[in-house]
Specification:
The complex is a heterodimer.
Chain A lengths: L2 H7 L2 H14 L3 H28 L8 E10 L2 E9 L1 H24 L25 H20 L3 H19 L6 H32 L4 H5 L2 H9 L9 H16 L8 H4 L5 H10 L1 H11 L1 H4 L11 H22 L4 H21 L3 H36 L14 H4 L1 H15 L6 H15 L3 H26 L6 H4 L6 H16 L19 H7 L13 H22 L11 H4 L1 H7 L4 H75 L7 H21 L3
Antiparallel strand pairs in A: 1-2
Chain B lengths: L3 H21 L3 H25 L6 H31 L13
The chains are: A mainly alpha, B mainly alpha.
C-alpha cells in the first residue's frame, strides 16, 4: 500500500468506532470497548508503520509524505485538503498514538469494567461504590471521537484541516469534562472550558483568515517551507505598527494556543477541567489536546520567527510569546505548590510545563520545544493515569471503611507505596521525569535543552523564570509523592486502599518506559561523558522540518549545573518539608508563608477577578443593559409604539371611513333591492290568466306603437 | 270570389272568441280548447294570405301544416299536464292553481 494512503487512513478507525457505538452497539459495554480499543489499535498500528517509514526516509523534511486534492473551488484557485507527514508530525503522531492507546486501555479498568452495575448509580454521576460506569459505552464513543480529532489535526497539511480537528477536540473536551453532568461543578467546568478556549479560537480563526487573505493558501508547505513567502510576510507591514504581517499572524495564531494550551491569562479552564474522569484529564488535558496548542506554535515556528536571525534580538511577537510562556511556567508552578487535590497539582504542573514549551518557541529553541512536547506528553499522561489509579484505590478504601473523606485530597493519603506498589513506582518515575531528575529521566534532557538554549542565547530573564519554575516543579512533585505514597497512612481509607486492576497498571508500566527512554533520543552530543554514545537523533530528525537546520549549541556547564541543582534541590526540599505531616495537620508551609499561602491556595484570586471584571459585567451587559434597556426598553418600546399607533389609526379608519362609507354603500344596495322586491311582489299573483292579460296588454301596447309610430 | 277581407274579419272574430275563452274560462280544459281556436284563426289567415297574395309559393301551406303539428303536440302535452294536475289537486280550475306566486 502507498504510504500516503496509509496516512489518511490513520484517523478513520476511531470515527467509525464512534458512529458504530453511538448508533449501534451502545447497549453492549463489552462490544463498545472492544470496538473503541480495537479501532485505536488499528490507528496505532498505522501510525507506527508511518512513523517507521518516516524515520527510515532520508531527508524527510525536504520531501515529506504529502498528498492533497482540490476540496473547495474558490474562483480561480481551489482550497486544497490533504495530509502530510514531515518529521514534526511524524513525531507527534508517535506520542499521540502511544498515549491514546494506553489511555483507551486504562479506561477499561478505570470505568470498572467487569463489575456489576450498582443499582444506586445514576447516569451523569460517578459510580459511588465501585460499580461499572453507567454510561460506559458513551465514554468510549466520546474518546474515540476525540482520538479522531487529534489524529486529524496531526496529519493535516493545512491550517483549515488542523482547525477542524482542533474544534472537534474542543467539542470532545466539553463533552468529557461534563461527562458526569449530574455534578454542578462539572457542568460549570465544561462551560468554562468551552467559553475560555473559544476566546483563543476566535483569534486563531482571525489569524487563519488573515493568512489566507495575504497568501491565498493555508498549506503548511507552501507557507512555512517557502523562503520567498516567509521573507515577503516578514517585510510587509501589518495593520498594527511595529508588527510585520508575519508577526501579527503569528501572534493571532499564538492566541489560539494560549486558549488551547491554557497559557496565562486563559489558563483558568484547565484546573477546573479536572472535574472530568481521570483518563480524560490524562488524554485531553495532559497528553494530547493541550499539546495540540504547542504543536501549532511549533508548526508555525518559521512564520513566528520570520525576519529573525539566530542570536539576534527577538522580534516583538517572539518577545510576547517567550514572556507569556516563561511567566506562565513560573506562575502556575507557584499555584501548584499550595494545592491539595492530587489532580489539581498535576493540572497546574501541566500549565507550567506547557509554558516551558511556549517559552522555548519564543526564544527560538525549536528542537528543544518539540523535544519537551514529546517527553512531557509521556510523563504527564503517566502521572495523570497514576493519580487516577491512586484515586481509585482511595475510593475503594473510602467505600470499605465508610469513612467520609475526600479521596482526592493528598492530606488524606500517605503510605500508599505499600498498598499500590506498581502505581507508586511508575508515579515515582513520572514525577522524577517531571522534576528533571538528572541523567535517567526524559524530562531532564528536554528541560535542560530549553534552559541551555535560554542561557546561551542570553535570554537571562527567561532563563531565570524557567529555572525558578523548575525548582518549584521539583518541590511540588516531591511534595505530592511524599504526601501520597511515603510516610504512614493518615486515614483509614488510605490504609484500606488497594492496587488497581491490570488494565490500569499495564498502561502505567508502558508509559513509564517512555518517560525514561524518550529522553535518550535527544542527548546532546557535546554532553560530557555520555554525549555521543547514542547519537542525537532527535535533533537531526526534527531539525529537518525547517528549511535551515537549527545549529546545535555549544556545551556550557552553567545551565547544566543549574538544572541539576534546581531539580535535586527541589526534590530534597519537598521531601524534607513534607515527610512528617501528621494526621489532620494542615500544610506545613501554611504558617511560615502566611498570606502568600492563602494567595497561592486561591490561585491568586484570578477566578474571582475574572468573575468580578468579566463574568459579572458580561451578565450585567446581557441582563440589565442588553435585555432590560436595549431589548425591553428601546426595541420593545419602539415596537409597542408602532403597534399602538397602528391600532389607533386602524380604529380611526374604521369609525370614519369603513363603517359609514363602505358598509353604508354595501347595505344600501342590499336593502334597496330588498325593498323594491317587497314592493313589487304583489304583482305575482300566480294566476296564469292574469299573466296572460298583462302579456296581451303589453303586446297590444307594443303593437300599437309599431303601427302608429314606427312606420 | 269572396274577398280577402271577409276571411280576415272571420279569422279576427274567431281569434277574439278564442282569446275570450282563454282569459275568461275557469276550466283548464276549456282554456286549452280556446287556444286551439286561436291557432285555427291563425291558420285561416295563413291559408287566405297564401291564396290571395302569393299563390305561386307553398310557404303559406307549409306554415299551416306546421301549426297543425304544433297544435296537436301542444294539445297532447296540455292534456297530459291537466290530467296529472287533476290527479294531484283534484281540480282543473285555473284560479285555484296559483303555485307560481310569491
Amino acid at each position: 500500500m502507498q504510504i500516503e494512503t496509509l496516512i489518511w487512513l490513520i484517523p478513520i478507525p476511531p470515527i467509525i468506532a464512534f458512529f458504530v457505538i453511538i448508533f449501534g452497539v451502545n447497549r453492549s459495554n463489552r462490544l463498545s470497548h472492544i470496538l473503541a480499543v480495537g479501532a485505536m489499535l488499528v490507528s496505532w498500528a498505522f501510525s507506527m508503520l508511518v512513523f517507521w517509514r518516516a524515520v527510515t526516509t532520508e531527508e524527510l523534511g525536504q520531501h515529506p509524505f504529502h498528498v492533497s486534492l482540490n476540496w473547495l473551488p474558490t474562483g480561480n484557485t481551489a482550497l486544497k485538503m490533504g495530509v502530510m507527514i514531515d518529521p514534526l508530525s511524524a513525531l507527534t503522531l508517535f506520542f499521540v498514538a502511544w498515549t491514546c492507546l494506553m489511555i483507551f486501555i486504562y479506561s477499561i479498568g478505570y470505568n470498572n469494567f467487569g463489575k456489576p452495575r450498582d443499582a444506586e448509580d445514576r447516569p451523569g454521576l460517578p459510580p459511588a461504590k465501585g460499580g461499572i460506569e453507567p454510561m460506559y459505552a458513551r465514554f468510549f464513543a466520546f474518546i474515540s471521537l476525540f482520538a479522531f480529532g487529534m489524529l486529524t489535526l496531526v496529519i493535516a497539511d493545512n491550517l483549515l484541516l488542523l482547525f477542524i480537528g482542533w474544534e472537534i477536540m474542543g467539542l470532545c473536551s466539553y463533552l468529557l469534562i461534563g461527562f458526569w453532568y449530574g455534578k454542578p461543578s462539572a457542568r460549570d467546568a465544561m462551560i468554562k472550558a468551552f467559553m475560555t478556549t473559544r476566546v483563543g479560537d476566535v483569534f486563531m480563526l482571525l489569524g487563519l483568515a488573515y493568512l489566507y487573505s495575504v497568501t491565498g493558501t493555508l498549506s503548511f508547505r507552501e507557507i512555512l517551507y517557502n523562503e520567498q513567502m516567509l521573507s515577503l510576510l516578514a517585510s510587509a507591514p501589518s495593520v498594527i505598527p511595529a508588527l510585520s504581517t508575519a508577526g501579527l499572524i503569528g501572534l493571532l495564531i499564538f492566541i489560539g494556543t494560549v486558549g488551547k494550551s491554557a497559557q496565562f491569562p486563559l489558563h483558568v479552564w484547565l484546573p477546573d477541567a479536572m472535574e472530568g474522569p481521570t483518563p480524560v484529564s490524562a488524554m485531553i488535558h495532559a497528553a494530547t489536546m493541550v499539546s495540540a496548542g504547542v504543536y501549532l506554535v511549533i508548526r508555525f515556528f518559521p512564520l513566528i520567527t520570520a525576519g529573525w536571525v539566530e542570536g539576534q534580538h527577538l522580534t516583538p511577537t517572539m518577545v510576547v510569546i517567550s514572556m507569556i510562556g516563561g511567566f506562565t511556567a513560573l506562575f502556575a508552578a507557584t499555584i501548584a505548590v499550595a494545592q491539595n487535590d492530587i489532580k489539581r497539582v498535576l493540572a497546574y504542573s501541566t500549565i507550567s510545563q506547557l509554558g516551558y514549551m511556549v517559552a522555548a518557541v519564543g526564544i527560538g529553541a525549536y528542537v528543544a520545544a518539540a523535544f519537551h512536547l514529546v517527553t512531557h506528553a509521556f510523563f504527564k499522561a503517566l502521572l495523570f493515569l497514576g493519580s487516577g489509579s491512586v484515586i481509585h484505590g482511595m475510593e475503594h478504601g473510602v467505600h470499605e471503611t465508610h469513612e467520609h473523606v475526600d479521596g482526592q485530597d493528598m492530606l488524606n493519603m500517605g503510605g500508599l507505596r505499600r498498598k499500590m506498589p506498581i502505581t507508586f513506582w511508575t508515579f515515582l518515575i513520572g514525577g522524577f521525569a517531571l522534576s528533571g531528575f538528572p541523567l535517567f529521566t526524559a524530562g531532564f534532557w528536554s528541560k535542560d535543552e530549553i534552559l541551555g538554549h535560554a542561557f546561551l542565547n542570553r535570554h537571562f530573564d527567561i532563563f531565570l523564570l524557567l529555572a525558578l519554575a523548575a525548582l518549584l516543579t521539583a518541590f511540588y512533585t516531591m511534595r505530592q509523592i511524599t504526601l501520597t505514597f511515603l510516610g504512614e497512612p493518615r486515614t483509614k481509607a488510605a490504609d484500606h486502599a488497594h492496587e488497581s486492576v491490570r488494565t490500569m497498571t499495564l498502561p502505567l508500566v508502558v508509559l513509564s518506559i517512555f518517560a525514561i527512554g524518550a529522553g535518550w533520543a535527544g542527548i546532546a552530543e557535546e554532553f560530557p561523558g555520555i554525549g555521543g554514545i547514542i547519537p542525537n537523533w532527535f535533533h537531526e530528525f526534527v531539525g529537518g522540518t525547517l528549511i535551515e537546520h537549527p545549529v546545535t549549541l555549544a556545551f556550557n556547564p552553567v545551565p547544566l549545573l543549574v538544572s541539576i541543582a534546581v531539580s535535586l534541590g527541589g526534590l530534597t526540599l519537598g521531601w524534607l518539608v513534607y515527610r512528617r505531616v501528621q494526621v489532620g495537620a494542615s500544610d506545613p508551609l501554611r504558617k511560615p508563608l502566611g498570606g502568600l499561602y492563602t494567595l497561592l491556595e486561591n490561585k491568586y484570586y484570578i477566578d474571582e477577578i475574572y468573575d468580578r471584571f468579566i463574568v459579572r459585567p458580561a451578565y450585567w451587559l446581557a441582563e440589565t443593559f442588553t435585555y432590560r434597556w436595549i431589548d425591553r426598553g428601546l426595541i420593545d418600546g419602539f415596537l409597542h409604539l408602532v403597534g399602538r399607533t397602528s391600532l389607533r389609526v386602524g380604529a380611526a379608519l374604521r369609525s370614519y371611513f369603513d363603517v359609514p362609507v363602505v358598509n353604508g354603500a354595501g347595505d344600501l344596495v342590499g336593502e334597496g333591492v330588498k325593498k323594491i322586491g317587497r314592493t313589487f311582489r304583489v304583482v305575482q299573483t300566480g294566476r296564469v290568466q292574469e299573466y296572460l292579460i298583462v302579456g296581451i296588454l303589453f303586446a297590444g301596447i307594443i303593437l300599437s306603437y309599431l303601427l302608429v309610430f314606427a312606420r | 270570389m269572396i274577398p280577402l277581407s271577409w276571411y280576415i274579419i272571420f279569422a279576427g272574430l274567431l281569434f277574439c272568441v278564442g282569446l275570450y275563452g282563454a282569459l275568461a274560462r275557469r276550466n283548464a280544459l276549456a282554456i286549452l280548447i280556446a287556444i286551439e281556436i286561436m291557432l285555427n284563426a291563425v291558420n285561416i289567415n295563413l291559408v287566405a294570405f297564401w291564396r290571395y297574395i302569393t299563390p305561386e309559393k307553398v310557404s303559406g301551406q307549409a306554415f299551416a301544416l306546421i301549426v297543425f303539428a304544433v297544435a296537436a303536440s301542444e294539445a297532447a302535452v296540455g292534456l297530459a299536464l291537466i290530467i296529472s294536475l287533476y290527479r294531484k289537486r283534484r281540480t282543473v280550475a285555473v284560479e285555484e292553481i296559483d303555485m307560481l306566486k310569491w
